[in-house]
Amino acid sequence: EVQLVESGGGLVQPGVSLRLSCAASGFTFSNHYMAWVRQAPGKGLEWVANINQDGSAKFYVDSVKGRFTISRDNAKNSLFLQMDSLRVEDTAVYYCATGRGWLIQHWGQGSLVTASS
Amino acid sequence: EIVLTHSPGTLSLSPGERATLSCRASQSVGNNYLAWYQQKPGQAPRLLIYDASNRATGIPDRFSGSGSGTDFTLTISRLEPEDFAVYYCQQYATSPLTFGGGTKVEIK
Prior knowledge:
Chain A is built from no helices and 11 strands. By secondary structure, chain A is mostly beta strands. In chain A, strands 2, 4, 5, 6, 9, 10 and 11 form a 7-stranded mixed sheet that branches.
């Protein structure tokens, strides 16, 4: 069974950094694209970033380019999202996700990030 | 960027009724790489349909997807109590991946 467990969320002030982690199990992590998707309170879903199997290709939504960095450690079956210069509008539940190619088949339970003064 | 628009925004129906949800893309979705997800309050989304018309593993056959190009439909043949939720379409053909704003299916 695929399991994705996010950690690292919390309440931070605007402008600071936060790093999310996702521990993956139940599948061959190194064979799959991974993604982060977020959902602001009471709002819809927004794709944030993708990374390919060996970490050589990364894609971002425009609103986080230059501030967020997606990375992975295949030896530890882990996915990361380094979030710098956080803004109030980055407040959301962040989901770790994976599947076939860019298709999202499996989701974690999410980690809440709140950027507020 | 491919913009996805749901209609209607809210659908008020009774259990046992048929639900028809529409998702329109601002440009053609390559390979019909269009998925539908169901989300209930406090839960992560769940994949229902992929490649426009294929049911995901474990999804009941009352859920079906159709369409191609720019127009896609999710049909729930007979609503069960557990089907009242928000439904999102998503295209995964082109970066940036995009989601529609969702259709809420509520109990009438």
